[in-house]
Amino acid sequence: MDGAREGDARSELASGLAKACSRHFGRPVRIAGLFRHSGGASRQTWGFDAIFGDGAVEKLVLRRDPPRAADAPPQNFENSLAIDRATEFAVMRAAGQHGVPAPSMLFIARPDDGVGDGYVMKSVDGTAIARELLRAPRFEHARQRIPGQLGAILAKLHAVPLSALPRLNIGGAESVIATMRRALDTTREPHPVFELALTWLERRMPPMPATPSFVHGDFRTGNYLADESGVTAILDWEIAHLGDPLEDLGWLCVKSWRFGAVDKPAGGFGSREELWDAYEAAGGAKINRDHARWWEILGTARWGVICMTQAWKHLSGAEESMELASIGRRAVETEVDLLELLG
Amino acid sequence: MAQDRPTAPELLDAISGFLRNEALPALEGLDARLAFQVKVALNSLAILSREWQRGPQADAAELQRLKALLGRDGDLPTLNAELCRQLRAGERDERNAALMDHLRATIAEKIAIANPRWR
What is the ipTM of this complex? Predict the structure, then answer.
């Protein structure tokens, strides 16, 4: 997109946000400082200030789907659990009401607002940038606390009563494996290591829990905000579903989410045991260690296949993006890890 | 027909130098997202450089190994598709030492091109 067109799109978005926010707050609002957050290849996040007549300022965030090409082919291999932004809004509000740190949710955009399919929430202090959290001296104290906090937060999250949630799909181990195989077949790029891993996993699949729990689905470093005191908000709820709580505990420990701190499986901050102990101490169900490890290995393969499908969004013409395309070359990182895990 | 210099890797280097030394400093502090995209581009150009140097040899070695492993002839896509079929069907698995040797060698070459710093 050239500079002028991007500028037009930005001022259009700002006026759409002014209209939507004025309606929500019941008084005129001016928008300033609109900027797009980096990262978030599959959803767009925009920060902005809502300025009221009396000069008061609210820092807000718009989360929305990226505009798609009108003739985009259907993404039939995409995670079948993916929820729309209105459902995500309701999920985040419910999680926040049940003790999970989440942003204050304000409103869902209307189609005639002209800001796309999305919602507006209050901005939360903190950074989601993994490398900063893992290395900056000012987060030293937070780093000690994060593994325990994540365990306790997951215990609360998995205890959110289903009656408080919108209707969500059930996703178990079997359907994750089926989705991954479909993705491998769609892209038609043979990946022997992923095939080996999926067969290994299928042969050792843990049973689906008798009662499925609320599961975040993408609970990892990079998807929560933290400040000097530790975790301030859990983000990226777009594949929230019902399933096995160990899915979240395993995914958090996948090596790709340690961002180089490879000897600290709990998101790059601590040991699995620290995470598991905090989870159980906060009321989470007793953790079957073997099953948690199984979900970690599944997560490793899953991230590898997601790398392929992210690239496929670009390659198939659905969404032109250099960033998405480049993610395809990260799949091999998980192949290295899988050979270590299975060998 | 041989192309004039710069060679492909020399051109990639020239583009990288421009992005790193001119485009990136101009964008940093101005547009964090675009600066990030430039870093993504630089990383991809480095992959292309390594692929130019190591790719053809790596592909040839992989093909030789696959022919020996599967005991048949064919090109890389065909033989890899056959290996995938066997693995999904469970006809071979991690207990097959020759298979694991082949996969380790193949993945070692892939990561040396895509991200040599991965560990």
Answer: 0.96
Q: Per-domain residue ranges for chain A?
A: 3-122, 125-168+219-241+263-287, 173-207+288-343
For B88, which residue in chain A has the nearest alpha carbon?
Answer: A195
Query: Tens digit of pLDDT per residue, chain A (343 long)?
Result: 456 677 788 899 999 999 999 999 999 999 999 998 876 656 889 999 999 999 999 999 999 987 665 555 555 455 667 899 999 999 999 999 999 999 999 999 998 998 999 999 999 999 999 999 999 999 999 999 999 999 999 999 999 999 999 999 999 999 999 999 999 999 989 999 999 999 999 999 999 999 999 999 999 999 999 999 999 999 999 999 999 999 999 999 999 999 999 999 999 999 999 999 999 999 999 999 999 999 999 999 999 999 999 999 999 998 899 999 999 999 999 999 999 999 7
The architecture CATH gives domain A3-122: 2-Layer Sandwich (3.30)
Q: Do A181 and B83 touch (CB under 8 A)?
A: no
**Residue ranges with strand state E in chain A:** 29-36, 44-52, 57-64, 105-108, 118-122, 213-215, 224-227, 230-234, 241-243
Residue among A192, A199, A322 minimizing CB distance to B80: A192
Question: Under DSSP, is residue A138 helix (H, G, I), strand (E, B) or coil?
Answer: helix
Q: Is residue B16 part of a domain?
A: yes
Question: Cβ B90–A262 below 8 Å, yes or no?
Answer: no
User: What is the CA angle B48-B36-A306, rounded to 5?
Assistant: 65
Query: Is B119 a domain residue?
Result: no
Q: What contacts A51, CB < 8 A, 6 or more positions away?
A: A29, A30, A31, A32, A57
Q: Which residue among B77, B88, B110 sits closest to A332, beta carbon to beta carbon?
A: B110
Number of domains in chain B: 1
* CB-based contact B103 A322, cutoff 8 Å: no
Mutate which of B19, B24, B30, B33 to test chain A, going by most A C-beta atoms within 10 A?
B33
Contact B114 A333 (CB under 8 A): yes
